[in-house]
Amino acid sequence: VQLQACGGGFVQAGASLRLSCAASGRTFSSYVMAWFRQAPGKEREFVGSISRSGNSTYYTDSVKGRFTASRDNAKNTVYLQMDSLKPEDTAVYYCAAHRFRNALHLSMMGPGDYDMDFWGKGTQVTVSS
How far apart are CA 30 and CA 92, in angstroms? Predict the structure, then answer.
């Protein structure tokens, strides 16, 4: 599976962005998808995950209520709607896929434990104050 994220940009605090991640291959619906981010000088951190069906989502506390993950298995695409953006959301955002873990389990993993099967190239999100 190849993943390609896009949709990043430079926005003011309070604005919204929607990231997209398109996947190649015919088995997209078999993968749990997740979003991660990495700010300069910091470890990569989990942002959110979405189950294979899209019915379940999990988020890190700092984005709960502001970010929403969704997926369209017919289009092999996962999205991250980011609302009420804050300067601390500034980071490179990555999408990733896992064949066997579930979305809840991914949300409980810490830096260094992210054993995703596939990673996309990141997309930069910059939020100015």
Answer: 26
Per-residue model confidence as pLDDT tens digits over 66-119: 999 999 999 999 999 999 999 999 999 999 999 999 999 999 988 888 899 999
Whole-number Å distance between alpha carbons of 117 and 46: 15
> What's the chain look like in SS3?
CCEEEECCEEEECCCCEEEEEEECCCCHHHCEEEEEEECCCCCCEEEEEECCCCCCEEECHHHCCCEEEEEECCCCEEEEEECCCCHHHCEEEEEEEECCCCHHHHHCCCCCCCCCCEECECEEEEEEC
For residue 83, the one-letter residue type is D
